[in-house]
Write a structure and sequence with these properties.
This protein is of the alpha+beta class. The chain contains ten helices and nine strands. Bound molecules: zinc ion (ZN). Zinc ion (ZN) binds near residues 171, 208, 209, 211 and 212.
Length: about 325
């Protein structure tokens, strides 16, 4: 209902929680920004004047910053939505101070981008990512991998890609038969120790019993404790962090995500040297890959994380999801 003489806004104005995914220089003064919003899913906006020294956004439109976004919907079908304000709520400064935190945070942003469609809202996905980024920025170092694993599982569930974990994804039967027969009949304690008790097949949709997992292309043998850990995390139960075991679980989910997305995540490769530097003993105790290709991820990687790790005085700026860079927050960059 319009008041005579009053100016009617040409388009709707929206206010929503949002996480910045990418920020790309567009012109001398403007940025194109991708954000994941709680109420509208992924949106692509133009932020006019964002590159000016005196910007209404105060330099807060940086990847992985969470804030309150005000934006206009595009007036023309082929136009970009317009960012009006962005008030930072959480800069996640801890991510900038530590590469182990930063790389996992960028991976969360990558998954949020890859698993979402523009303008399709998923508050569950937003909440999962927002909570994970908070944990990654401020949580205990031992729990970083667990925070990432929990986020992977929640984002998969929000996307309708929840892996089957409580039964065989192929036959629906128990993954660990209570009374194994024939050549696999072994005492329970021994079965618990054996790495080939069950399998995890990304192409098959999750956990597989011995019969349906063994020999399957791309399936990985998983120990009983590891699969239990994965299931408990998926069910949202409290599990004590165990960085080595959580890394194994994360790698299973990396494979699952790679199969569903058609390529390995950009950050998966970046996480590899960091985690293996930190924990040289990790990486193979609980899982064994069978028949899977170890193809390198497609697409160029802008900079190696090792190079960044060697220059702590420089602002960390690895490729953020989509190839933009993570810059120091609050616009302290010189132009
Ligand atoms: Zn089966």
């Amino acid at each position: 209902m319009s008041v005579p003489g009053a100016r009617v806004p040409p388009v709707a104005i929206h206010r929503t929680d949002a996480i910045v995914l990418r920020a790309i220089d567009y012109s001398e003064t403007s940025l194109i920004v991708w954000l994941y919003t709680r109420d509208h899913g992924r949106v692509h906006l133009i932020a006019k004047g964002a590159r000016r020294a005196r910007s209404p956004f105060e330099g807060a439109l940086e990847p992985l910053v969470r804030g309150e976004l005000v934006f206009y919907r595009k007036a023309k079908p082929d136009g970009l939505d317009i960012a009006k304000e962005f008030d930072p709520v959480d800069l996640h400064l801890g991510l900038r101070a530590d590469l182990a935190r930063l790389h996992r945070g960028v991976y969360v942003g990558e998954l949020l981008t890859e698993l979402s469609e523009p303008d399709v809202a998923s508050p569950e996905a937003f909440d999962a990512a927002a909570e994970a980024l908070g944990h990654l920025a401020r949580g205990s170092h031992d729990a970083l991998e667990q925070a990432l694993v929990g986020c992977q599982l929640r984002l998969l569930a929000a996307s309708g890609l929840r892996p089957v974990l409580d039964r065989c994804a192929r036959c629906g039967g128990p993954v660990f038969p209570e009374a194994p027969a024939g050549r696999d009949a072994r005492p329970a304690q021994e079965r618990d120790r054996r790495a080939d008790d069950a399998w995890f097949g990304p192409a098959q949709g999750g956990a597989l019993c011995l019969e349906h997992g063994r020999g399957e292309s791309g399936a990985t043998a998983v120990s009983r404790p590891l699969l239990r850990r994965l299931l408990a995390t998926a069910l949202g139960r409290r599990v004590a962090p165990d960085p080595a075991a959580d890394l194994e679980v994360r790698r299973l989910l990396d494979q699952f995500l790679a199969w569903h997305l058609g390529r390995e995540g950009r950050m998966v490769r970046w996480l590899r040297p960091v985690t293996e530097q930190a924990r040289p003993e990790a990486g193979g105790a609980g899982t064994r890959r069978r028949g899977a290709s170890t193809s390198a991820p497609r697409g160029p990687v802008d900079r190696r994380p090792e190079a960044l790790a060697g220059s702590p005085s420089r602002s960390p700026s690895p490729a953020a999801p989509g190839g933009s860079t993570v810059r120091p927050p609050l616009g302290r960059r010189a132009r």
